[in-house]
Amino acid sequence: MKDPISRREFLQKTTASVATVTVAGSLKTGVLFSDAKDLKNSIPKRMLGKTGVQVSQLAFGGGSRFMMYKSDEEAIQVLNWVIDNGINYLDTAHVYGDGESERRYGMVMKDRRQEVFLVTKLPARDAENFMRQFELSLKRLQTDHLDLLHIHSLGKMDDVDKIGERGGVYEMLTKLKNEKATRFIGFTSHTDGAAAKAAIERYDFDCCMMQLNASKAGNFEDLAVPAARKKNMGVVAMKATAQEKLLGSGAGKATIEELLRYSMSLPVAAVNIGMPSFEMVKQNVELARNFKPLSPQEIRTIQDKTTVARAGLESFFVRHSDTRTG
Q1: Can you give the pLDDT of all 326 residues of the chain as single tens digits?
Q2: Strand 45-47 with 54-56, pairing
Q3: pTM of the predicted model over 0.85
Q4: Among 55, 100, 202, 275, which residue's beta carbon has the most beta carbons within 10 A?
């Protein structure tokens, strides 16, 4: 049997899939899934912790993979298509594409803001710059409020301490929530599960997004997830494929179906994935529509396949920034 193609190989071999569809209305609801009765409800939804909001179990990521769409036109077509086809959780960040990701989102949000759960992330670690970034993000996104605002990329314990300084970022975040500029607040982390656990226990966040994949890199699954569940926080998984480093065949590798099913089988509200081609969007939407939880044996099998990659991924994610494509 031929080995399954990895997503990285697919990226190299695939050219702009979206461009094969006509500009005038190619990505309208029903073109590719004409037998579906209600596309907007075709992806199962889960409760996002104590927020009381239900979100699609597949989230759309606006990071480096989204910026691989070469034109605004392609990016906007894809965003409209994923909303039409059941994804209501849209994630971006202030720094993605040096602001271009938020700007592209805004071109869709100006007409469809009420249809989605809109999330962005700010990297500043002082209140003044955090507020400046927030105001610019709202402008780019063409909205007057967010559904969820994250402190972006929490690192080690010194970073956990830093955000809680008097007059600091956490205080600004709670102020924005109290003023209803954002409905909910949280943080993201792909570096250290122990630090994420400390942040969860120390502060009053509504949600968190963390690295959760079959390699268990960073120990988020064993440390941070139980702490978040204890506080009924909404948990979103990211890095399910570890920037495609877990995709493929051979040692430390698995298929996209295995990796997506693994992360979706965890106690999370959604799995956030960057999808740099329309073919990948379609594939992941179909996997989310037809998701079945893994059995304990299947979980162990996938963990055994990918555990060899854990040490390398932990080193990679300490220095990783999703503003780049690598």
Answers
A1: 344 444 444 344 433 333 333 333 334 333 344 444 579 889 999 999 999 999 999 999 999 999 999 999 999 999 999 999 999 999 999 999 999 999 999 999 999 999 999 999 999 999 999 999 999 999 999 999 999 999 999 999 999 999 999 999 999 999 999 999 999 999 999 999 999 999 999 999 999 999 999 999 999 999 999 999 999 999 999 999 998 999 998 889 999 999 999 999 999 999 999 999 999 999 999 999 999 999 999 999 999 999 999 888 888 777 766 654 44
A2: antiparallel
A3: yes
A4: 55
Q: Which two tokens stand for residue 214?
A: 């079959």
User: 52's torsion region: left (phi>0), alpha (psi -120 to 50) or beta?
Assistant: left
Phi/psi of residue 60, each to 5°?
A: -100, 125
φ, ψ for residue 149, nearest 5 deg: -120, 125
Asked if 303 and 214 touch (Cβ cutoff 8 Å), the reply is yes
Cβ partners under 8 Å of residue 319, min gap 6: none
For residue 275, the Cα-to-chain-centroid distance in whole angstroms is 10
Rounded Cα–Cα distance for residues 224 and 291 (Å) = 24
Q: For residue 186, report the phi and psi dihedrals to the nearest 5 degrees.
A: -170, -165
Nearest to 147 by CA among 177, 108, 170: 177
Spatial separation of the C-alpha atoms in residues 173 and 170, rounded to whole Å: 5
Whose tokens are 């555990």? That residue is 307
